[in-house]
Amino acid sequence: MIKILTPLFAVIAMVPVAMADVEIKRWNPEGLGQPVGYSQVVTIEGTGKMVLLGGKAGLTADDYIPETLAEQSKLTWENVDLALKAAGATREDVVEIEIFIVDLANIDPNPAYQDVRDFFPAGHKPVSMVIGVSALAIPELKMEVNVRAIVAND
Known about the structure:
The protein is α+β, with helices and mostly antiparallel strands. It has helices at residues 2-19, 69-86, 110-119, and strands at residues 23-27, 41-45, 48-57, 94-102, 127-133, 143-152.
Protein backbone atom coordinates (compact mmCIF):
# COMPACT_ATOMS: atom_id res chain seq x y z
CA MET A 1 0.00 0.00 0.00
CA ILE A 2 2.85 2.42 0.66
CA LYS A 3 4.13 1.95 -2.91
CA ILE A 4 0.74 3.05 -4.30
CA LEU A 5 0.40 6.08 -2.03
CA THR A 6 3.91 7.43 -2.52
CA PRO A 7 3.49 8.26 -6.26
CA LEU A 8 0.04 9.68 -5.55
CA PHE A 9 1.43 12.05 -2.92
CA ALA A 10 4.23 13.08 -5.29
CA VAL A 11 1.67 14.10 -7.93
CA ILE A 12 -0.42 16.01 -5.39
CA ALA A 13 2.67 17.82 -4.13
CA MET A 14 3.47 18.97 -7.68
CA VAL A 15 0.02 20.44 -8.39
CA PRO A 16 0.59 23.82 -6.65
CA VAL A 17 3.80 24.36 -8.64
CA ALA A 18 2.05 23.66 -11.94
CA MET A 19 -0.92 25.85 -10.97
CA ALA A 20 1.42 28.83 -10.53
CA ASP A 21 1.60 29.00 -14.35
CA VAL A 22 -2.18 29.10 -14.75
CA GLU A 23 -4.27 32.23 -15.24
CA ILE A 24 -7.95 32.19 -14.32
CA LYS A 25 -10.20 34.76 -16.00
CA ARG A 26 -13.88 35.29 -15.13
CA TRP A 27 -16.24 37.55 -17.10
CA ASN A 28 -19.66 38.14 -18.59
CA PRO A 29 -19.47 38.39 -22.39
CA GLU A 30 -21.41 41.00 -24.29
CA GLY A 31 -24.73 39.63 -25.49
CA LEU A 32 -25.35 37.59 -22.34
CA GLY A 33 -26.87 38.75 -19.08
CA GLN A 34 -24.56 40.57 -16.67
CA PRO A 35 -25.18 38.81 -13.34
CA VAL A 36 -23.70 40.05 -10.09
CA GLY A 37 -23.35 36.77 -8.18
CA TYR A 38 -21.62 34.54 -10.75
CA SER A 39 -19.63 34.61 -13.98
CA GLN A 40 -21.06 33.64 -17.34
CA VAL A 41 -17.63 32.37 -18.49
CA VAL A 42 -14.50 31.19 -16.67
CA THR A 43 -11.32 30.26 -18.53
CA ILE A 44 -8.24 28.64 -17.07
CA GLU A 45 -5.11 29.05 -19.17
CA GLY A 46 -1.70 27.47 -18.88
CA THR A 47 -0.55 24.70 -21.15
CA GLY A 48 -4.10 24.75 -22.46
CA LYS A 49 -7.26 26.56 -21.58
CA MET A 50 -10.24 25.17 -19.69
CA VAL A 51 -13.54 26.94 -20.30
CA LEU A 52 -16.29 26.52 -17.71
CA LEU A 53 -19.81 27.66 -18.50
CA GLY A 54 -22.09 27.47 -15.51
CA GLY A 55 -25.85 27.78 -15.54
CA LYS A 56 -26.49 28.44 -19.23
CA ALA A 57 -30.23 28.53 -19.78
CA GLY A 58 -32.95 29.58 -22.19
CA LEU A 59 -33.18 33.26 -21.42
CA THR A 60 -32.13 36.31 -23.36
CA ALA A 61 -29.72 39.01 -22.20
CA ASP A 62 -32.75 41.11 -21.22
CA ASP A 63 -34.15 38.19 -19.13
CA TYR A 64 -36.94 37.09 -21.50
CA ILE A 65 -37.76 33.39 -20.94
CA PRO A 66 -39.77 31.42 -23.53
CA GLU A 67 -42.57 29.23 -22.17
CA THR A 68 -41.82 25.77 -23.59
CA LEU A 69 -38.94 23.38 -22.98
CA ALA A 70 -38.35 23.20 -26.74
CA GLU A 71 -37.97 27.00 -27.02
CA GLN A 72 -35.81 27.22 -23.91
CA SER A 73 -33.58 24.39 -25.10
CA LYS A 74 -32.97 26.05 -28.47
CA LEU A 75 -32.10 29.34 -26.75
CA THR A 76 -29.93 27.54 -24.18
CA TRP A 77 -27.69 26.10 -26.89
CA GLU A 78 -27.56 29.46 -28.69
CA ASN A 79 -26.30 30.97 -25.41
CA VAL A 80 -23.77 28.16 -24.96
CA ASP A 81 -22.47 28.79 -28.48
CA LEU A 82 -22.20 32.55 -27.81
CA ALA A 83 -20.34 31.98 -24.52
CA LEU A 84 -17.96 29.42 -26.07
CA LYS A 85 -17.08 31.81 -28.90
CA ALA A 86 -16.53 34.65 -26.40
CA ALA A 87 -14.04 32.40 -24.57
CA GLY A 88 -12.20 31.41 -27.76
CA ALA A 89 -13.69 27.91 -27.78
CA THR A 90 -15.92 25.95 -30.15
CA ARG A 91 -18.44 23.15 -29.91
CA GLU A 92 -15.60 20.77 -30.81
CA ASP A 93 -13.72 21.78 -27.63
CA VAL A 94 -16.55 20.78 -25.26
CA VAL A 95 -15.64 17.73 -23.19
CA GLU A 96 -18.45 17.57 -20.62
CA ILE A 97 -22.02 18.77 -20.17
CA GLU A 98 -24.51 18.46 -17.34
CA ILE A 99 -28.17 19.05 -18.18
CA PHE A 100 -30.69 19.81 -15.45
CA ILE A 101 -34.35 19.41 -16.46
CA VAL A 102 -37.24 20.41 -14.20
CA ASP A 103 -39.87 17.72 -13.54
CA LEU A 104 -38.10 15.26 -15.84
CA ALA A 105 -40.34 12.34 -14.85
CA ASN A 106 -43.48 14.17 -16.01
CA ILE A 107 -42.44 15.90 -19.24
CA ASP A 108 -41.23 14.90 -22.70
CA PRO A 109 -37.51 15.75 -22.70
CA ASN A 110 -37.00 14.74 -26.34
CA PRO A 111 -36.79 18.33 -27.69
CA ALA A 112 -33.88 18.99 -25.32
CA TYR A 113 -32.22 15.66 -26.15
CA GLN A 114 -32.49 16.33 -29.89
CA ASP A 115 -30.97 19.81 -29.50
CA VAL A 116 -27.96 18.28 -27.72
CA ARG A 117 -27.53 15.72 -30.50
CA ASP A 118 -27.74 18.46 -33.13
CA PHE A 119 -25.45 20.91 -31.31
CA PHE A 120 -22.28 18.82 -31.30
CA PRO A 121 -20.66 17.74 -34.58
CA ALA A 122 -20.00 14.05 -35.28
CA GLY A 123 -16.84 12.89 -33.54
CA HIS A 124 -17.05 15.66 -30.94
CA LYS A 125 -19.76 14.48 -28.57
CA PRO A 126 -18.91 15.32 -24.95
CA VAL A 127 -19.51 13.20 -21.91
CA SER A 128 -22.85 14.14 -20.46
CA MET A 129 -25.43 13.54 -17.83
CA VAL A 130 -29.06 14.53 -17.45
CA ILE A 131 -30.33 15.30 -13.97
CA GLY A 132 -34.00 15.68 -13.10
CA VAL A 133 -34.62 18.45 -10.59
CA SER A 134 -37.71 19.83 -8.88
CA ALA A 135 -36.87 23.48 -9.65
CA LEU A 136 -34.13 25.85 -10.76
CA ALA A 137 -33.11 29.20 -9.27
CA ILE A 138 -35.34 31.05 -11.74
CA PRO A 139 -38.77 29.39 -11.42
CA GLU A 140 -39.75 29.85 -15.09
CA LEU A 141 -36.73 27.91 -16.35
CA LYS A 142 -37.31 24.34 -17.46
CA MET A 143 -33.64 23.44 -18.10
CA GLU A 144 -30.13 24.62 -17.40
CA VAL A 145 -26.72 23.30 -18.47
CA ASN A 146 -23.14 23.37 -17.25
CA VAL A 147 -20.45 23.04 -19.93
CA ARG A 148 -16.72 22.30 -19.71
CA ALA A 149 -14.39 22.73 -22.69
CA ILE A 150 -10.64 22.35 -23.18
CA VAL A 151 -8.86 24.46 -25.77
CA ALA A 152 -5.36 23.22 -26.59
CA ASN A 153 -2.60 25.79 -27.05
CA ASP A 154 -1.12 25.78 -30.55
